[in-house]
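FAQ
Q: What does a multi-component entry look like?
A: The components come first, one per line:
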Amino acid sequence: MATERTIGRFAHRPQVAFFDFACCEGCQLSVLQLEENLLEILEHVDVVTWREAMSEESSEYDIAFCEGSITREEDIERIKRIREKAEVLVTLGSCASGGCHNELKNQWSMEEMTGLVYGDHADEIDTIPSRPISAVVDVDYQTFGCPVSLPEFVTVVKRILTGQSYDPPNQPVCVECKHNDYLCVFEKGTVCLGPVTRCGCGAICTAYGDPCRGCRGLMDSANLGALLKAWTREQAHAILGKVVERYGFTEEEILARVRVYNNWPELELPDLSPEEAGPDGD
Amino acid sequence: MATDATIHVHHLTRVEGHGDIVAEIADGQLKEARFDIVEAPRFFEGFLRGLPPSEVTHIASRICGICAVSHKCAALKATEAALGVEISPQTNLLRRLAFHGEVLSSHLLHIYFLAAPDFLGLPSVMPLVDSDPALVRRAMRLKQIGYDLAAMVAGRHTHPVAMTIGGFSYLHDPGDFQPMRERLVAIREDLDASIELFATIDIPDLERPTEYVSLKNPDRYAFYEGDVFSSDGHRIPARRYREAIRERVVAGSTAKHARWNRPEYLVGALARFNNNYDQLHDAAKSAAERLSLHPPVHNPFMMTVAQLVECVHCVEDAIELIDEITDAGIDPAQQQSPCEPGEGWGVGAVEAPRGILFHEYEYNADGKCVAANHVIPTAQNLANLEADMRLFVPTIADQSTDRIQHLLEMLVRAYDPCISCSVH
Ligand code: SF4
Ligand code: SF4
Ligand code: SF4
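Then the predicted structure of the entire assembly, as tokens:
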């Protein structure tokens, strides 16, 4: 729900607030790791509210950085109040911008979830299907990643301060992975979601020999159907073919992985053309 | 004297996650003293079901952004136990090294950014950016070295990428460890200055002996592995933790409370310090001496100070681990133990920065997770914290309501609660 709202430079030193919803707070923490960059940013803005780091609190702010997913009715109200006050609302990381793993719980009924964890006290627990902040209010800038990709965070801060908009990249992680000459993890027989995942992280996972799990979310143009075909059908690329031969991934297995970070709105099996669909029409 | 005082701190600041302090004094008598956890639950124990071990262990670190390495390792250990995977001595050593990074970053975040402002009479470190930039830079250097040490081993601290079931997805080069070794040697000076600072601060009085629970390892000060140990004299293997630790749901809180031999027990830096003092590095023991910390310590406000002592231990032990790995070299054959997905059940227990942490998973014949359980340090500490509050409030009831509130906030912060983690 990113809007077209244009935001000019601020007439005064912008007041910044941080807010968190259901999440691990790893994105805020990553921001704290910016060190020099952080001190530079602090030269241009005043942080007026950041519950995790300070007791000062202000009800006035221009820029709200919001982290986490919306999982309670009361949080819908809270994020709406923040939206009303903030000139600029930025979602911090995948819990807030995309889907992230919080949305995995939406595969079950909320009663089953609360009963499983809280037993007799389940009734006291307020929880609704999890959704990103971007699904509840208009968002001016989105940053992705679990945790948020720091170069993207810095870029977004600069864009906000100079009154420019920011379009998240829409190319696959493979681009960065190949640019850096990392070994393709398919060579190790692992499913990698790099081909369908929004880049911008520098392919940090494949750099360390781990597959991309898709934490920055599917690219807007991600062709999930083609990917499934490639990974599950014989006509696959030579490497993919080798992987399929060796491990025989099924569509459901691949979808299970895609779902980990992309289950909002609930992920559906993309249409495969009839001649390529399995005999039972899967 | 505040014969009547009602304290309600909504969303306590400078802690991780959302919690409310509630205290009530009427006619000079304590009516109520609670710390309510009002964090939104995320239901990891529900939604991990159906996932294969690779995804379970990947997602599990997301329980907490501060102690991601601990959650990752607890999940890996539980899964490795379930699948019968033995890790190599090299993997064990590297994981221990990553733990030191995490303990350093987490403790120093708490010591400087969350707790210190209370002792310096400030609402946060922000005012120090202008008034004492040297202190802020020191704090940032200290915190950063922890993240960087963990990232050196795990690819990234929040969230680790190179740690996999059976070992590492990445072959390390000991040469890469040398710059870190130099930084660790140099950081001693910053730790020294921190000890000097904390040796002079006033710590509120509160003495309440309790049950101290931590891992215990015959060979070393335990972070990564050991038996579950209680200062009340019990010791059991981690896989039998359910026989000892009982969790219960309490009204008004989305985090569970826990008990073992007593109705409440303490985990974390002070529990480890009390239980395993003898195994601390000599440099850490002399730091404890300078900070007047002698085991057993029964003042919960000393948790922050015990964390500082542990930081000294972690820096010294990290230097020794790097030397050990440099001498031995990295053996590619020890990078990754083979793993066949399949049926099994396992428990993984580690010492996260805030205390003992359990992950438990069951996988079915299809290799899918069918049950998950996580016992989080902060949740285990909640009953103990409230017992401290009940003892503490009457001793400070003659002070102004603002002062009582401030002291209670300090007490909660001393526990370094990690609330979103405790709710998960
Ligand atoms: S996006 Fe990931 S790192 Fe960031 S808050 Fe959510 S779970 Fe934590
Ligand atoms: S490792 Fe993944 S991201 Fe890299 S090229 Fe291969 S498929 Fe693409
Ligand atoms: S490589 Fe994939 S999983 Fe890793 S950080 Fe980038 S988008 Fe996320």
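Q: Is there any commentary attached?
A: Sometimes. For this entry: The first strand of chain A starts at residue 15 and ends at 20.
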